[in-house]
Structure formats: structure tokens, C-alpha cells
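task queued by scheduler; priority normal; single chain, no ligands, no partner chains; default sampling; output format set to C-alpha cells
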Amino acid sequence: MRYFIEFSYNGKAYHGWQNQPNAISVQEVLEKALSTILKTEISTMGAGRTDAGVHAAQMFAHFDFKGDIASIDLVYRLNSFLPHDIAVSEVFQVDAEAHARFHALRRTYHYKISTSKNVFDYDFTYQVQLSLDLEAMNEACKILLEYKDFQCFSKSNTDVKTYNCDIKDAYWTKSSNQLIFTITADRFLRNMVRAIVGTMINIGLGKQKPEDLRKIITSKNRSEAGFSAPAHGLYLVEIEYPERIKIDI
């Protein structure tokens, strides 16, 4: 039977979600916990990758297990076994063909910027104490929605079949001393959100105009876009699946 597991993690201590040969990953720690509790080797498939240091408020993965987990309080046992920076919220049975990555309809990220020095937010937001023009940054967001090919924001030498992404929504909001960038799309390229944020910061600082974004996107050249914003300000916050994917047990 196939199961989906919903969880969250603080990415500070991990080299991203996906297993790495010489670095600790969230996937490695989660698979070890599942394998220990279920007493068999468990492999997981995540909904996508997150880079080293990126956080996830909501992440999904699927795994196959021949036994019945209905009688096991798996969420409680996993949370007791896992370290403090990974938390499981639900495990549920899905259709045998359900796929955590390929069946995701859309994903939403937040990027958080602190506009004043805050010692408690230091590891979880990018601190920019210079004044940023939020109106100009939101003008640039509207331009993003006009395009599909975002090769200019992709990590160089990435092996992908297409650079097309369908961005559903993108906007900046202000909350107290934080600026929060929200972006939703069907898929994202490696480093894409952080590259967009770096470009938006340049626009917010007046180094570039919102209209300059058109030239950047059509260039398909990563060097034309802005810097890659630090990973610790980025959060995967929501993944949406078809309702029919879940089986009531």
C-alpha cells in the first residue's frame, strides 16, 4: 500500500531535502526513522527538492509499505523518534499510483525579509535594513505573470527538459517589520525563487526598474538576473493535490 506523509522542517541543519552522498539531508533522517519504526527498509519520494538551508512549513513524500499502519500511532512514534527540527503532522493512505511529486498541482513559497535588525529572526529571515520600494517590487510581480520561460532564474547547468513554469500568483506584503514574498506555480526551477527575490531586491533598491524585468526574462541568461537571496529566508509553505488522491481508512 502507498502512503503520503505530511511534515515540516527547519532546514538550517540540513543540506536540503534530497539524499546527498556526503551531507545530511531531511530525506535521510526521515527514511531512517520510518525504517526503524516499521522494521523494514523504507524509501521515500518527496514532492520536490529544497536547497540547503531552506525551510518547509508543509512538505509531502510518499512511501510504500506492505503492512498495515492503522494500528500503529505512526505520527506520535515518528515525532518521538525524529529530531526537534522535523515534525510529522499526518500519514494517510493514497491510491497505489499516487505520486508526491508528479501529482502536485501547485506549490507556494514564502520569502521573508526583516527590515530591521532582529536577533531572534536572524536564522529565519534575510535582514535588509535599507529601504525597499514595495510598490515597484509589486509592479515587477505583475510582469512575472506575463511569462512562462524562466531560464534566466534557473541555476546554471541544470539538467531539465523545460524551463517553463506557470506562475499563478506573485506579490509582496508588509507585516510589521517584515516583507513577505508569496509565489505560487505548478513547478519551480532550481534556485528560481531565490533568484527572483534577489532581482526584486535590486528593483526595490532602485538599482533597476520594474520594466527591466522583461529584458532579464527574455535574455534567458542567469547573469542578467539579480543575486541569489540567502536560503534561510525561504519557506515552502503549501503543496496542493487533487482531492481524490486520499483514501479514507
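post-processing summary
- The chain has five helices and nine strands.
- The radius of gyration is 19 Å.
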